[in-house]
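Same chain as my last thread, 217 residues:
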Amino acid sequence: MPNYRPPDALTGTPGKVTLTRGTPLYRIHGSHRPAAGFNPRPSHCLYGGGRFDATSCDPYGYLYAGLGPTAAVCETLLRSLPFDPAGGPRLLPRRAVEGRRLSTLRLAADVDVLPLVSAQDLAAVHQDTWLVHTEAHEYPYTRDWAHWIRHHTDPWAQGLLWASKREPADRTVVLFGDRSPEGALRAEEGDAVDFDTAEGREWLNSVLQPYYVQLAP
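reply #2:
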């Protein structure tokens, strides 16, 4: 299930999780972009984009991050990276990390997010694991569901929280810029890991190694 049209009304009672002030978040982004900046550009309604991006149907700034650095790495870099049938390490193309870095952010205010972690969390919004596990070809539908959830949780839900598809032991979050207070995120500039440096690539390979992944030569 359940790729179906959202119902007219939300009849469940969604959960609420408060990410407290001081909580660290980890984000991989282009080095030329501000670490704490929300993406202001809506994705196309039908093509490309991420799982819970804004579209022209519901425009808002959005920012994806992991609650741990491994979630940020896995969610951003390990999408659809196949295993080697011969048993060798999976090779991550260097172009996937060129001009990118991992930044540490810290919440400067409490933020309330809607959890999509347990079966009960998902059932409360008339969904199951399809919403957080389906692959990119169905992202137009997951985006529509995110818009519907936002509509029925206005104004309190400032983001969504779910178990990382590529590292289920960790959590991923998307925050909504239109519901987050100004300055809600602060970048820890001294903690950035630049993947264009030898030190940054060494750090990244150390994180990738337990997943049988390494940067391609």
